[in-house]
Amino acid sequence: MKEKRILHLTLLRKWFDLIASEKKTKEYREVKPYWNKRLIGKKFDEIHFKNGYSKNAPFMRVEWKGITKENGEYAIILGKVLEIKNV
């Protein structure tokens, strides 16, 4: 079985809650060398979002639907929320 390709991102609670409720369907990141290296030319199966850095921080798994550029930023297109824990 092939290993899943996962993008790990940390969010503030406001954005975490909006994605969890599926009201927010894109997550934006600045076009900078750091994000270029992490996102360009890569394909992922899922995005793992955390709200904070603690071991028991709120966590969710979301489908990766792709990436585009919008208004000078990367727009990560989000699919279905697959799992939510520790909320």
Brief description of this entry?
It contains two helices and five strands.
How many discrete domains? 1
**Radius of gyration of CA atoms, rounded to a whole number:** 13 Å
The CATH superfamily label reads Hypothetical protein
Q: In CATH terms, what is the architecture?
A: Roll
Largest sheet entry: 5 strands, mixed
How many H/I helices? 2
Written as H for each helix and E for each strand, in order along the chain, the element string is EHEHEEE
Low-confidence stretches: none
Shape: globular
Mean pLDDT: 95
The largest beta-sheet arranges its strands as 1-3-4-5-2
Report the strand count: 5
> What distance separates the N and C termini?
30 Å
Topology (elements, then pairings):
Blueprint: E1 6-10, H1 13-20, E2 26-30, H2 33-39, E3 46-50, E4 59-70, E5 73-85
Parallel strand pairs: 1-3
Antiparallel strand pairs: 2-5, 3-4, 4-5
What features would you describe in this structure?
- This protein has one domain: Hypothetical protein (Archaeosine Trna-guanine Transglycosylase, Chain: A, domain 4, Roll).
- The mean pLDDT is 95.
- The chain is α+β, with helices and mostly antiparallel strands and 87 residues long.
- The protein starts with 5 loop residues before the first strand and ends with a strand.
- Strands 1-3-4-5-2 form a five-stranded mixed β-sheet.
- It has helices spanning 13-20, 33-39, and strands at 6-10, 26-30, 46-50, 59-70, 73-85.
- The longest helix is centred in the first third of the chain and has 8 residues, at 13-20.
